[in-house]
Amino acid sequence: AQSVTQLDSHVSVSEGTPVLLRCNYSSSYSPSLFWYVQHPNKGLQLLLKYTSAATLVKGINGFEAEFKKSETSFHLTKPSAHMSDAAEYFCVVSVSEYGNKLVFGAGTILRVKS
Amino acid sequence: KAGVTQTPRYLIKTRGQQVTLSCSPISGHRSVSWYQQTPGQGLQFLFEYFSETQRNKGNFPGRFSGRQFSNSRSEMNVSTLELGDSALYLCASSLGPNGGGGYTFGSGTRLTVV
């Protein structure tokens, strides 16, 4: 069965420093993977997606993620954090043998200090 | 291009009542899926519809049901509400039958059961 594990429930960085949010996945076949962001009292916004094309995926707002099959990882990075990046981030795997179903990680809350 | 529209944004209901939530997908999208978000359980898959057919259902009791209309709009219904049904309910639309093009989420309906 497909699953994702977000290795950190909270991450705190200073503004201007790099961001690393870690995600490991489990999938019986080549997965589709996503990162979503949720700001307080808001819906989910897609940051980026991996669908078996390039292993380094660039997303919005300077975020990128690298798909590493050997490590079953899909970590999200950003070179320089901004205060507006403070939010909750979800790593998501798509289960699509039949139908559209997303399995979410538990989420990582990113805090950005000034 | 209009996004995914969920109505109402907020609801307060009493235990034992029933509630209907609505989701209008992006124009042209034929897949609508529903998710429940709670602090304790995170984001969990409820069900997914494509061309008016339910293709997947999550592990929720039969009090949770849904349907999709010919214009792809979807409704979900919760009967005999319990306090534990208090949550943010999110719907996502997708263009194709296997998530082609990714998933776009609405802002959600926040249901409070008192």
What does it look like?
Chain A is mostly beta strands and 114 residues long. Helix content of chain A is 0%, strand content 55%. Chain A contains no helices and twelve strands. In chain A, the strands form three sheets. In chain A, strands 2, 5, 6, 10, 11 and 12 form a six-stranded mixed beta sheet that branches. A four-stranded antiparallel beta sheet of chain A has the order 3-9-8-7, with no helix packed on it. Chain A has a two-stranded antiparallel sheet with strand order 1-4. Chain A is globular and about 45 Å long. By secondary structure, chain B is mainly beta. Chain B is built from no helices and eleven strands. Chain B has strands at residues 5-7, 10-13, 19-24, 31-38, 42-50, 53-57, 64-68, 74-78, 87-94, 104-105, 109-113. In chain B, strands 2, 4, 5, 6, 9, 10 and 11 form a seven-stranded mixed beta sheet that branches. A four-stranded antiparallel beta sheet of chain B has the order 1-3-8-7, with no helix packed on it. Chain B is globular. The chains are: A mainly beta (114), B mainly beta (114). The A-B interface holds A 32, 34, 36, 42-46, 49, 90, 94, 96, 98-107 and B 31, 33, 35, 42-45, 48, 50, 55-56, 58, 90, 92, 94, 97-99, 102-108.
